[in-house]
Amino acid sequence: MTYLDLMALEQALFIASIVILVYFSALQLMLLVLTLLSFLDMRKRLRQNYYTDFECVARSHFTIPVSIIIPAHNEAGVIVPCVDSVLSLDYPEFEVIVLNDGSTDETLSLLKKSFQLVERRFVYRKSIPTGEITSIYKSASRPNLTVVDKPHSGKSDTLNIGINLARYHLFCSIDADSLFQSNALLRIVRPILEHPDEVVAVGGQVRVANGCVVEDNRVVEPRVPRRLLPAFQVIEYLRAFVASRLGLSRINNLLILSGVFALFRKDMVIQAGGYRANTVTEDMELVVRLHRFIRETSEKGQRYRVVFLPDPICWTEVPVTLRNLARQRNRWHRGLIQSVSRNLKMLFNPRYGSVGFVGMPYYFFFEMLGPIVEFLGYLLIPLGYFLGILSLLYFVTFLLLAIVAGTLLSTLAVLLEEASFGLYKGWGDFARMMALALFENFGYRQLTLLFRLKATVDFLFGRKDWAKTKREDDTR
Amino acid sequence: MIIPFYILIWAFIVLVLFVLATVLAAGINRVVSSSRQATDNANRARARDLLLSLSRESGEGRVKLLGRIRDFLSQETAEHVALALHRLDAPARRDVVELFETNGLVSHFIRLLKVGSKWNRAKAARILGELDLPVASAALYKSLDDRDPDVRNVAARSLSRLRHPMAQSVLISVLGKHEEPVSSRIAAMFIEAGAASVPLLVKNMRNDNWRARFWSAEILGQVGDQRSERVLVAALKDTSADVRSAAAKALGKTGTGASVEHLVPLLKDEEWFVRSHAAWALGKLRAVDAMGELAQGLRDKSWWMRKTSLEALAELGDSAIPALMRVLEGDDKFARESALEALQKLGVEVRSGEGMVG
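Predict the joint structure of the above. Result:
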């Protein structure tokens, strides 16, 4: 390598370092602002809850009924407890539609046996074009339970069939492997009761069920899991749900609602075309499309909202093995890239209002490109050191600085949880959470970075499947 | 160097300090909130115990106890005492409410309701609602126009808890004036009051505001008092489709056979939701005479109308079978499918292929 080449390389490294530095600073600043917004919003929500007469909502004739849609593909291990837990939710009027998506295990037979299912012909409107249904069952013991048997056609199509069958104006999509607080539905419906014309979708908070004490399909004692991998995810979920999504929701720029627990206005979803097939993460894709659809079709100045609420809580099992975590994160990140890249038109487009200038750029630059830039950062700084551009001290300090900034966000998320719900009661759990928040950025974060990087490569090479995480029972 | 080293060091130190501060804040928050929680729980328990003892005591013991309650009662503990008031019998309740007045707390919370910060106004509205005083209801009534929706909600909830007759006449005058949660809270109160609220609601069906008429019809339907039938039948010809629809629905719940002939013309209303509610009501009233019109409803252009007509026919029982069988012979694929389902519901064996659609 000639001296000139080295000079050029040094120059390139210098520019790249500046780009990465600016990028990291902007990212951390953005996350910090979102966390602060979350603090403000959380305070408001908790006060509102204190003064809300949920008992009245639970008894009122005017509470809007909800259709709960549960797609199930090979969920024999969890389906009956899940349906039981959903049927016992505290809510005046709701129906439960379980869709057996061509399971090869005992999902359907268990449902038939547990709920005395009787086959019925059923008239419904195909508002969204879907695949075929094999048969429809009604429960003899639970009048508000419908079970649909259908050939395997994927989660999006299954959910669309559920929407077509839903009788009510609102539908709530949930995952079969989740557990709900009994008041979850009452809580999640609140924004729609208050602003029925404005709110089009509401997401609830998803927490880690691993390690928690579960009785009668309810989490009775939340605990931080003993195993390290799910324990790190507790902090990660707190950061994602309590800190970041709450902040984005406050400025109505939320582009993701977790499919594990989300409520939608059926008419809007039907008008937007329902869940789209051939998507990796159908939940994010739908929310982005809803934003786009409303911004494109509504009159100028018409208000609408996609809301995230921290208090309707649902508990879900997270992966406990590296292999499953890798698969899950791979799918999530491919889904994110797909949803963002399909809607790139919205980026910096004034037609889409603030979503075009805040939400979309956030997901594009920080969530989608994040792993690439972060990886380059980890690569370039050592390179700078080896080429003698940076000193060892400078290199180490810079690295520590980046890590500590991440740690601050994690500890802030734990503080937010402590100051709001304080679900983890013991001091032992508190100490574990703090330790996890402090050490999450040393190793775990880099690990998930690799998973997301791999997902980016997979996406570029055309992998489009919906890799399902293998079930592992980790609750007590 | 991109940025001077000393800035990096300082940034690092500041961030580490922030992290430590956050950890410390979380720890302190845990200690403080658990101690605040403990104080709160203790105050709540003490308020409950004092008030429950009051019902048992008499004579000098009662006077002494009232003195202890007066000493306990402060701006901080007022909410706990107010929320425990519902446990008391009328005389004991009156004595404790009087203590609120003598301690100056009633005027304090009325003032807070006007000039306090948002959540203090909400707190004041909640406490005043529990006290159930005429003087407080006037202040609460004004709070229905508070600039904040949360305060309006709490005020509606508090007003709906008031038991004296004046509250009802005040509330009926604002029915339908506010957003959905406030109106539905007020409506819930009228439903709870039941038959006693019917004369007021019947009168309100002549209100100029269509929202007031709509809510009154909704509530009359839930209360289910036959005194409202005449006024609901008249509302079937209301200029507002929402009122017509609510009246039809209400008649389905409370009406008698006499309503049927008035409901049938609504099956041809221009609005689908009016037609649909009329069909539903006719089903509930077992209007066998309207069978032909309901069978026509299976061909309606609105899916909801077809669906409710089907359900209404199924409600009519066996007498609907001939009409449904005739639909099976028609051209309309959807009507055939609907009729088939209704017949299945009625337990009629339909030969394979009849009315079946591909």
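Chain A has one domain: 30-365.
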